[in-house]
Structure formats: C-alpha cells, structure tokens
C-alpha cells in the first residue's frame, strides 16, 4: 500500500531535504524514524528537494508498506523526530499517486526583513542595511515573468534538468509590517530558481535594474545575466497541489 505523509520542517539545521553523503538531511531523518517505528526499511520519495537552509511549511512524500498503520503513527513519529520536523498527517493513496510527478503546482514564499530583527535571522533576508526597496517596481517586474516559460537564466548550472520550461501561475510582492513577502506558484521549479528570481527582483527594487531589464535577462538564457541568489533562510515551500 502507498501512503502520503504531510510534514513541515525548519531547514536551518539540515543540508537540504534530499539524502546526501556525510550530511544531515530531512529525508534521512524521516526515513530513519519510519524504519525504526515500522521495523522495516522504508524509503520515501519527496515532492521536491529544498536546498540547505530552506524551510517547508507543507511538504509531501510517499512510501510503501504492507503493514496496517497504527492510528497513533503520527504521534509516534513526532515523538521520535527532532523539534525541527513536524508530521501533520499520513493517509493512504492510490498506487499510482506520486509525491513528485503527480503534483500540479508548488508555491513558495520568500521573506525579506526591512528592519533589523533578531527574531527573523533564520527565517528572512535581512536587508535593513540597504536603501528601501521599491515594491511597485518589483511587482512590475513580476508581470514580465508571465510572458515566458523558459527560465534557464534562473536555473542552477550543471544540473540534470531535462528541460528548463516552467509555467508560472502567480508572482507578487506585498508589504506586511516590516517585512516584504514574495509569493510565487508554478507547475514546477528549477534548482535555485526562486532564490535567483528574488535576488534579481531586489536589484530591481534598489534601482540597479529596471523592470523591463527582466526581459533581456530571461531571453539571454544565461545564469550570469540574472542577479545573485537570495539567501536560503528566507525561502519557504508553503504548498504542493495534487
């Protein structure tokens, strides 16, 4: 039987979601907990992979077992796992449901703190040393994203992506007290794509770039044409749709 597991995590102490040699990952911790409690080797497939330091408010993975799951499994997993990972629910799905390939959209949020705030050091990009960002110009640049589907300029170099084509459904900035929040939804995202877009948008906000410059950046299909990647700690995966 195939099961979906919904969970959240603070990525500050993890080297990303995906298992990698000699580093602590969310996937490794999750599989270790499931395997220990179910007393059989459990392998999971995640809805995606987040980079080192990136957080997730809503993430999904699937796994398979022939066991009938204990109704208290969520509680047992939360008791076993560190405080940095929270299991929300586990439910049975059809055998052909896939945490990654069945997803129809993903939504990320990115947070920028415009005032010095010791409580958001690990959850936002602190830009208080810079001049104020022009959110109107940044939202003008957002509208240009909808004109394109090839985002090679925002993709991490030398990855195994077979295509850099993505369909962006939503992209907007909003001011919430002393923070700026960027929300972006798409059918898929490339490695480092959101952080590269945010870094470029901040250059628009500071006046280094004009909103219209985004067209040339995208059409160049060259990573060095875009801005630097925004710091990881401000990025949250907040939704995955099926």
Could you walk me through the main structural features you see in this protein, from its secondary elements to its overall organization?
The chain is 22% helix and 26% strand. It has helices at 26-38, 73-80, 135-145, 193-205, 213-220, and strands at 2-9, 45-46, 55-64, 85-93, 105-113, 125-126, 168-176, 179-186, 235-241. By secondary structure, it is an alpha+beta fold. The chain contains five helices and nine strands, in the order E-H-E-E-H-E-E-E-H-E-E-H-H-E. It starts with a strand and ends with a strand. Strands 1, 2, 3, 4, 5, 6, 7, 8 and 9 form a nine-stranded mixed beta sheet that branches. The model has no long low-confidence stretch (mean pLDDT 96). Strand 7 (168-176) and strand 8 form a beta hairpin. The active site is at residue 51. InterPro entries: PsdUridine_synth_cat_dom_sf (IPR020103), PsdUridine_synth_TruA (IPR001406), PsdUridine_synth_TruA_a/b_dom (IPR020097), PsdUridine_synth_TruA_C (IPR020095), TruA/RsuA/RluB/E/F_N (IPR020094). Keywords: Isomerase, tRNA processing. This is tRNA pseudouridine synthase A. Substrate binds at residue 108.
